[in-house]
C-alpha cells in the first residue's frame, strides 16, 4: 500500500506515488479487481452511495490497454461489489491533464467512452496534476478554449461536472470553474475564503464544495489542521460535503475525516448530520434517486437517535 506520511512539498510530489499504483492496471481483470476493492473499502465505512472518481486514461497508459477495456473492467468490478454489498456506485471519469506528454487517451476520447458507459458514469471530473493546479485565467488561450469546449460537451451530453479549483490555485479559479466551465461542484474550493466576493457568491448560489481535510494537509496545500478553513466556510454557510480524495494516498477513510471534524473542529452530531445530507443534495444522482437516498439516510438517523 502506498501512503504519504509527511506532507508533500507540493501537489506534484504528493501525486507522484500514483505512478506506482498505475502498475496494478495490467489488464481488464486487474482493473475490475481494483474497482471492486475500492467499493469494498467504502462499504466498510458504511457508505450507502459512492461516487467513485476514476482516471481511465491514466490507468490505460501503463500497459497500453484499450480504453474500453479499462471502462469495462471498472464497471464490472463495481457492479460485482454492488450485488454483493447492496451499495450504490456511480462513476466520475477524469481525463489526464498531461495526456500529450504521457501519450495517453485524450480528454475527448475519455468523454466519448464515458458516454458509452453512461449507465454508470454520471459525471466528469477535471483536475490538473501540475504544480499550478487549475489556475484558469493564467492558462494559454488555446488550452483555456480546449477546456471550455470540453466542459460544454460534457454538459451537452447530460453529464455533471466537478472541477478542482481553489486548492493550489487561488479563489479566482473557483469563479473561473463556475463561470467558464459551468462546474456543478468544486473539488476542494477551500481558498474561496481568501476572497470575500467569491465566498459570498458560492454561498448564495449554493455551489457544493468537495472538502478533503486530510488531503489538504498531506498535499501541503494547508500547513496544519489549525489553519484549515473548514470552520470558516461552514460558518459563512457554504455548501460543504466531506470527502476522502484519494483515501490510500491520504491514509484516510470517511470515518477518519468525520472524526477529525469532531476532534479538531468541534463539529456536533447535528452538524455532521447536515454534512452527510449535504452530500446527498450535492450528489450527481437525479432528483428521484436523491429523494430515495435521502429517505434511506434519514431512516438511519432516526434509528440512531432513538437508540
Ligand atoms: Zn483531489
Compute the number of strand runs.
7
Bulk shape: globular
- Which fold name is given in CATH as the topology? TIM Barrel
- How many helical stretches? 15
What fraction of residues sit in β-strands? 5-15%
Helices and strands, in order, run as HHHEHHEHHEHEHEHEHHEHHH
Per CATH, which architecture?
Answer: Alpha-Beta Barrel
> CATH homologous superfamily, by name?
Metal-dependent hydrolases
**Main sheet: strand order:** 1-2-3-4-5-6-7
The CATH class is: Alpha Beta
Uncertain segments: none
Bound molecules: zinc ion
| Main sheet summary | 7 strands, parallel
What class do helices, strands and sheet pairing give? alpha/beta
The number of domains is 1
Q: What is the residue-averaged pLDDT?
A: 92
Summarize the structure.
The chain is an alpha/beta fold and about 300 residues long. It has helices at about 10-15, 20, 30-45, 55-60, 65-85, 100, 105-115, 140-155, 170-180, 195-205, 215-220, 230-235, 255-265, 270-280, 285-305, and strands at about 50-55, 90-95, 120-125, 160-165, 185-190, 210, 240. The chain has a seven-stranded parallel β-sheet.
Secondary-structure map with pairings?
Layout (H helix, E strand, L loop, with lengths): L10 H5 L2 H4 L6 H17 L4 E6 L1 H6 L5 H19 L2 E6 L5 H4 L4 H10 L4 E6 L14 H16 L3 E6 L5 H9 L5 E4 L7 H9 L4 E3 L1 H6 L11 H7 L3 E3 L11 H12 L3 H14 L4 H19 L2
Helix pairs in contact: 3-5, 14-15
The structure holds zinc ion.
Walk me through this protein's architecture.
It is a single chain. The chain has 307 residues and is α/β, with parallel strands linked by helices. The protein has a single domain, classed as Alpha-Beta Barrel (TIM Barrel). Helices cover 51% and strands 11% of the residues. The protein has 15 helices and seven strands. It has helices spanning 11-15, 18-21, 28-44, 56-61, 67-85, 99-102, 107-116, 141-156, 171-179, 196-204, 213-218, 230-236, 254-265, 269-282, 287-305; strands at 49-54, 88-93, 121-126, 160-165, 185-188, 209-211, 240-242. It has a seven-stranded parallel beta sheet. The longest helix is centred in the N-terminal third of the chain and has 19 residues, at 67-85. It is globular, with a radius of gyration of 18 Å. The chain starts with 10 loop residues before the first helix and ends with a helix. 44% of the residues are buried. Residues 127, 164, 187, 245 line the site of zinc ion (ZN).
Amino acid at each position: 500500500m502506498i501512503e504519504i506520511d509527511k506532507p508533500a512539498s507540493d501537489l506534484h510530489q504528493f501525486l507522484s506515488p500514483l505512478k506506482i499504483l498505475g502498475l496494478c492496471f495490467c489488464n481488464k481483470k486487474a482493473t475490475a479487481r481494483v474497482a471492486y476493492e475500492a467499493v469494498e473499502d467504502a462499504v466498510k465505512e458504511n457508505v450507502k452511495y459512492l461516487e467513485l472518481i476514476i482516471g481511465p486514461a491514466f490507468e490505460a497508459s501503463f500497459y497500453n490497454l484499450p480504453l474500453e477495456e479499462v471502462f469495462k473492467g471498472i464497471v464490472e468490478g463495481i457492479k460485482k461489489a454492488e450485488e454483493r454489498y447492496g451499495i450504490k456506485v456511480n462513476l466520475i471519469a477524469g481525463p489526464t491533464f498531461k495526456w500529450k506528454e504521457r501519450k495517453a487517451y485524450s480528454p475527448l476520447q475519455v468523454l466519448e467512452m464515458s458516454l458509452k458507459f453512461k449507465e454508470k458514469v454520471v459525471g466528469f471530473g477535471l483536475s490538473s496534476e501540475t504544480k499550478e493546479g487549475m489556475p484558469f485565467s493564467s492558462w494559454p488561450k488555446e488550452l483555456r478554449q480546449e477546456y471550455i469546449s470540453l466542459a460544454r460537451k460534457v454538459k451537452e451530453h447530460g453529464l455533471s461536472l466537478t472541477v478542482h479549483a481553489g486548492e493550489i490555485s487561488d479563489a479566482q479559479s473557483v469563479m473561473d470553474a463556475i463561470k467558464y466551465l459551468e462546474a456543478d461542484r468544486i473539488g476542494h474550493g477551500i481558498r474561496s475564503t481568501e476572497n470575500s466576493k467569491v465566498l459570498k457568491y458560492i454561498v448564495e448560489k449554493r455551489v457544493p464544495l468537495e472538502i478533503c481535510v486530510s488531503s489538504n494537509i498531506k498535499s501541503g496545500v494547508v500547513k496544519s489542521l489549525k489553519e484549515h478553513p473548514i470552520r470558516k466556510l461552514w460558518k459563512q454557510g457554504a455548501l460543504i460535503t466531506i470527502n476522502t480524495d484519494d483515501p490510500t494516498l491520504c491514509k484516510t477513510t470517511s470515518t477518519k475525516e468525520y472524526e477529525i471534524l469532531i476532534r479538531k473542529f468541534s463539529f456536533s452530531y447535528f452538524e455532521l448530520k447536515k454534512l452527510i445530507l449535504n452530500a446527498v443534495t450535492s450528489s450527481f444522482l437525479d432528483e428521484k434517486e436523491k429523494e430515495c437516498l435521502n429517505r434511506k439516510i434519514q431512516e438511519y438517523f432516526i434509528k440512531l437517535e432513538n437508540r
